[in-house]
Amino acid sequence: MKIEEFKIRVTPEQSAIVQNVLFNNGYSWVTGCQNIVIHTNKKYLCLEDGYDALPRELCYYNKRKTFEIDTLEELSFEEFLAKYDIKELRKYKLKKLNKLNPIQKFLKKLKNVIHI
């Protein structure tokens, strides 16, 4: 699947998921490393066109300021999954819901029922 250029803020867990989605679609790190999840401590990732007509490559930003001034489209983690891996999005939402305390779960279900 072709994935458009983007930038994204991630947690370590989200970084691993984003990397796996990209690897499963034929993308790699700018270094050429593919199918190995690395740099999960980096909060800011991007997929951008490579140099010398290479395909898009995954890279990271060391600083928030650099991330913020880059003109690539910013996706939230859930937007990324909704566009490129709907199955993973469902698993992520279910896992997120299971982490909520019982009152939060009830309120979330209630909100979905009455469409607030």
Largest sheet: 5 strands, mixed
Mean pLDDT: 86
Shape: elongated
Given as residue ranges, the uncertain stretches (5+ residues, pLDDT < 50) are none
H/E element order: EHEEEHEHHH
User: What Rg, in angstroms, do the CA atoms define?
Assistant: 16 Å
> What is the β-strand count?
5
Number of helices: 5
Q: Kindly state the percentage of residues in helix.
A: 40-55%
What structural class do the secondary elements suggest? alpha/beta
In terms of DSSP E residues, the strand content is 15-25%
Record the strand order, biggest sheet. 2-4-3-1-5
Termini distance? 35 Å
Structure description:
It is a single chain. The chain has 116 residues and is an alpha/beta fold. The chain contains five helices and five strands. The chain has a five-stranded mixed β-sheet with strand order 2-4-3-1-5. It is elongated and about 55 Å long. 17% of the residues are buried. The mean pLDDT is 86.
